[in-house]
Amino acid sequence: MSASFDSIGMLTRLVGFDTTSRNSNLDLMEFVRDYLAGYGIASEYVYDAERRKANLFATIGPADRPGLVLSGHTDVVPIDGQDWTTDPFAVTPRDGKLFGRGTCDMKGFVAVVLAMVPEIKAMPLAAPVHLAFSYDEEVGCIGVRRLIATLQDRGIRPFACIVGEPTEMKVIRAHKGKISLRARVRGFECHSSLAPRGVNAVEYAAKLIVRLNAIGARIAQEGPFDREFDVPYTTAHAGVIAGGTALNIVPRDCWFDFEFRHLPNHDPQPLLAELQRYAETELVPQMHAVHADTGITWQDLSSFPGLATDDAASVVTLAKAASGANSTGKVAFGTEAGLFSAAGIPTIVCGPGNIDQAHKPDEFVAIDQIAQCERFVRRLVESACVRG
Ligand SMILES: [Zn+2]
Prior knowledge:
Elements: H1 7-15, H2 26-37, E1 43-47, E2 54-60, E3 68-73, E4 92-94, E5 97-99, H3 103-115, H4 117-121, E6 129-134, H5 143-154, E7 160-163, E8 172-175, E9 177-186, E10 190-191, H6 201-222, E11 235-243, E12 249-250, E13 253-262, H7 269-290, E14 295-304, E15 307-308, H8 314-323, E16 329-331, H9 337-342, E17 347-349, E18 364-366, H10 367-385
Parallel strand pairs: 3-6, 3-7, 7-17, 8-16
Antiparallel strand pairs: 1-2, 2-6, 4-5, 5-18, 8-15, 9-13, 9-14, 10-12, 11-13
This protein binds zinc ion.
């Protein structure tokens, strides 16, 4: 028999594993696997290429028919450079809140689901409850893609999926998608006193960023718009840049990282193509006119699709009833939900905590949110999976 945990006890265990995305998550997953095995529930690992990390998939109840997926990621963002007043890898209760890295994003939801396993297991399940826990969400929703591919290979076709990212237990049926890239500008180096004989990589990168910014400004004016998002249009942004070595050298290299955060039904590819066309037709010819061994190259960093589940979808109805909500929302931040949805699994996002509390020092989840999440999961499983 397994040790039993309440949600806070389980959260304490999970936060104790430092699953910052750069680390292996296997210690945490072994704990989960052993815990589930204590209730006679088998787990399957879907590993990354190096077998350093794994997704975990487990099924409670009859596996031969469509079921409900409860999904969360196990990785957390780094604490590097953050000024914590509590131990980030312990749970510290204070003022009705639980502090610790990942309490909000999103070990809180995973802990609630795991703590409720004995209760779910004891229900007369007519449809299965699947647990789907992933790795490397925070670095581009990487791990869950292998998990979803495995489900598709097996012909597992869930009728609904709940991704428990922090929404303060609101039912979120849409979020933006993202594409992100690195642009590398190769210029031609020379002494800065001879600047016109060189090709200044920093200056050409700056021109590209100005154009990216202009594209963003145009969309902000012209749309498309969806007023249910707090930023109701697709955005463009350059976030990291590096170039040059000394002021008296015309820089040979400069690179920068940028992204489009797009409305789920607004294809960002034409926007990217517009930027690349500007580079190819206007900037590169100017660069080549000075020196042939120059240019601009593009590298995909990461992307994930937006989520746009119909308000009338049964997963929305189920989640609204279970949460007691009479409305749904849309959020700007991305989740794994868009990938589940793209695989044909009706998906919404609903979980404890507020995204404002994620990724920060002294991250926390309110104890009341954990209690709300327990009620939500109980009602959801009862209405979606229990016979009767
Ligand atoms: Zn998250």
